[in-house]
Design brief:
Shape of chain B: elongated
Distance between the termini of chain B: 75 Å
Largest sheet of chain A: none
Radius of gyration of chain B: 26 Å
Number of helices of chain B: 4
Number of domains of chain B: 2
CATH architecture of the largest domain in chain B: 3 Solenoid
Oligomer: heterodimer
Largest interface: A-B, 42 and 35 residues
Number of strands of chain A: 0
Shape of chain A: globular
CATH superfamily of the largest domain in chain B: Single-stranded right-handed beta-helix, Pectin lyase-like
Chain lengths: 258, 424
């Protein structure tokens, strides 16, 4: 198991895409720190990029990696290796280096330029949310790639999933809010935010940067959630968003006829 | 006590003579030569202009009425204990000074405005360097002229608005100075109603249930260099003309009805050089005429400025807006205000001629701010990519945000802290 994982990690680390990904975040963060000026603004800008790019990259990396590992997987499955172990190695071998590339790329410039005073905790929340999002979307990508054998369709589905979760979802929520504005929408809205991993990560950032505005709304449910255990609940659900798709992926992997 | 008649005789003799101010000592055991045991006795014996020195200890006695001009000074911070049922000092004469005392334990009252130190219909009093611990109302001034309330400390234990009083309460007064006090744990920290020509300076009002400072019908008053922090509803200024609010800090006013500073029905207010930080709403302008807000810094608020459409001729000059969820929000598209030379960290323009002013106008009201005003829960969609797209498209082609709220040439860098230049 560990040998498999180690092999897979080394394999991923050799890919130029991963280096390019880390370099991308390195450059973005460095540029923000150099030209962004106000300290809080840097983290907010980085947060926006994270929420958009990390899910996309997780999905694209995840699907292509699983398709490319197909011959290797089939070879290993002929050996006495448990399918659960192999899936764990494949998943961990991609998710861990990708998350590490993100944390390093986004975190290193702060190590060089210094963390803006008073924003250390916010930076940790941001990096943690980015790492978890990586885990979520690599798992979702594996699910997609296991369901579709056709590579092009799989990739298309992955990008579609990204569009849906990162962009259209919030648009739909806003539309529903406008249409049913006269009703008490607090609870459904909160549930909608907690059901989407991108929104979960965003809520974690909101709590750090827009706490004052979140407490402005008169609704009791909001006040109780955001004034109380909001951050913990969001973080726990984000973890669940890693575990549940990964578990489904493992099940699909075990049952799949290669 | 045997010495008392002697002291009285001496005092009478002194009174019959040159009328030089005498000193009367109060101590709990009456031990000092010529001392009396209660403040009430001392005040009744004193003549106008005398000095009453209260030695360290705890005094439990009926409410003391100070009906002649005296100087009452505590030595070693003596405590007047209200035993949870009565007021402590009631000043009804002009020219009274109260200094260095500790007022404690007034209890709660639902039927009367029980106050530790009440001044009624008097002038020229000085209330300085006293402690008020668990006093329902601390200092209560009614029909007072030219008093100073200075350097006192108020620590209330307010738990609900109905069962709590104000730290410093002014009613129908003129020319009162409230300076350098620390007020915490009351309903309103500092309360002024029908108080004209008053000055509130360098006070710290923190952690009060309702307002840090609450004033109504108090024309021509000045509020300078105060700190208002973590008060339930922030600071409210209502139904008043010609107010000057300068160099104060309004911080951490959080909640659905919390404002850093609420201006309601105000004529000609001047708000300059203040800091508004981490409030749900930094500055709420509800029915103000000719507001001038200049060189203020709005940082990390939910809404930096909420401008109701009933505000007329408001001018925002050289303020800084940084790190707020929403910089400016309005409740109607026809809202109007003049914005000139402000710094917005959300500004996306450029400065080709390098004169420090942006070359394209900035509209500080985001489309999403309007949406969030109409559908409040939408605020959780803040910073989502979709909302960013909405705002960007509105910036390119403004159709919904107020036409009249626009800064034609915003500053490229923070300006509020710089030396003032002539206003444009």
């Amino acid at each position: 198991m560990t040998r498999l994982l180690g092999y897979q990690v080394r394999n991923v680390l050799r890919s130029r895409w991963l280096a390019a990904y880390a370099l991308f975040f390195l450059l973005v963060t460095d540029a923000l720190l150099r030209f962004g000026g106000d300290d809080g603004k840097v983290l907010l800008g980085l947060g926006n990029v994270t929420l958009l790019v990390v899910p996309l990259v997780g999905l694209v990396f995840g699907t292509t990696a699983l398709y490319e590992a197909r011959p290797f997987t089939e070879l290993l499955l002929a050996q006495p290796v448990g399918r659960g172990q192999l899936f764990a190695a494949l998943y961990g071998g991609l998710a861990l280096p990708t998350a590490a590339a993100y944390v390093l790329g986004a975190g290193l410039p702060f190590a060089l330029h210094g963390v803006p005073s008073g924003h250390g905790a916010s930076l940790l929340v941001l990096l943690g949310a980015g790492a978890l999002l990586t885990g979520v979307f690599v798992a979702l990508a594996f699910l997609v790639a296991l369901r579709t054998d056709d590579r092009a369709r799989g990739l298309g589905a992955a990008v579609g999933l990204w569009l849906a979760l990162a962009l259209l979802y919030d648009g739909g929520v806003l539309l529903l809010l406008a249409v049913f504005g006269d009703h008490a929408l607090e609870r459904p809205l909160l549930a909608a935010m907690l059901a989407n991993p991108v929104d979960l990560a965003r809520v974690l950032l909101l709590l750090r940067f827009d706490g004052a505005a979140l407490l402005g709304y008169t609704g009791a449910v909001f006040a109780r959630f955001f004034g109380g255990p909001g951050a913990l609940v969001a973080a726990a659900l984000l973890l669940a968003w890693v575990a549940v798709p990964a578990a489904f992926g493992a099940r699909a992997f075990r049952r799949k006829d290669f | 006590m045997r010495a008392e008649p002697l002291v009285a005789a001496l005092l009478l003799a002194a009174a019959g003579g040159a009328q030089a101010p005498a000193t009367i000592v109060v101590s709990p055991d009456g031990a000092a030569p010529g001392a009396v045991r209660t403040l009430g006795t001392a005040v009744r014996r004193a003549r106008a202009g005398d000095r009453v020195v209260v030695r360290a200890g705890t005094y439990r006695e009926p409410t003391v009425v100070v009906d002649r001009p005296l100087t009452i000074v505590g030595e070693g911070r003596p405590t007047l204990d209200g035993e949870a049922r009565r007021e402590l000092l009631h000043v009804t004469a002009s020219g009274v000074t109260v200094r260095g005392l500790r007022f404690a334990n007034l209890g709660r009252s639902y039927s009367e405005d029980r106050a530790a130190l009440r001044v009624t219909a008097a002038g020229g009093c000085v209330i300085a360097d006293n402690d008020f611990d668990d006093t329902f109302y601390g200092v209560y001034l009614a029909d007072v002229d030219g008093c100073r309330v200075e350097g006192n400390r108020f620590a209330g234990r307010a738990s609900s608005e109905a069962a709590s009083g104000n730290g410093i309460h002014l009613w129908s007064s003129r020319g009162v100075t409230v300076a350098g006090n620390r007020v915490a744990g009351h309903r309103d920290g500092i309360y002024l109603e029908f108080a004209r020509d008053c000055r509130v300076e360098r006070n710290a009002s923190e952690g009060n249930l309702r307002y840090g400072l609450h004033f109504m019908y108090s024309d021509s008053s000045r509020y300078v260099g105060n700190v208002f922090r973590r008060n339930g509803a922030g600071v409210a200024v209502m139904y008043t003309r010609a107010v000057e609010v300068r160099g104060n800090r309004f911080e951490d006013g959080r909640g659905p009805a919390a404002y850093g500073l609420l201006l309601k029905e105000i004529g000609d207010p001047v708000v300059t050089g203040n800091v508004f930080a981490r409030n749900t709403v930094g500055l709420m302008v509800d029915g103000a005429t000719r507001l001038v807000a200049a060189r203020n810094r709005f940082a990390a608020n939910g809404w930096a400025v909420q401008l109701q459409a009933n505000a007329q001729d408001a001018r925002f000059l050289a303020n800084d807006f940084a790190g707020n969820s929403f910089d400016v929000a309005t409740n109607a598209r026809d809202a109007a205000a003049t914005f000139a030379g402000n710094y917005f960290d959300a500004y996306r323009g450029y400065d080709l001629d390098r004169d420090g002013r942006g070359d394209v106008p900035h509209r500080p009201v985001r489309l999403f701010a309007l949406l969030a005003a109409r559908h409040e829960p939408a605020v959780v969609l803040q910073r989502s990519f979709f909302v960013g797209l909405l705002d960007a498209s509105e910036r390119l082609l403004p159709t919904l945000t107020p036409d009249a709220v626009v800064d034609a040439r915003p500053a490229m860098r923070p300006v509020a802290a710089r030396a003032p230049s002539p206003a444009p």
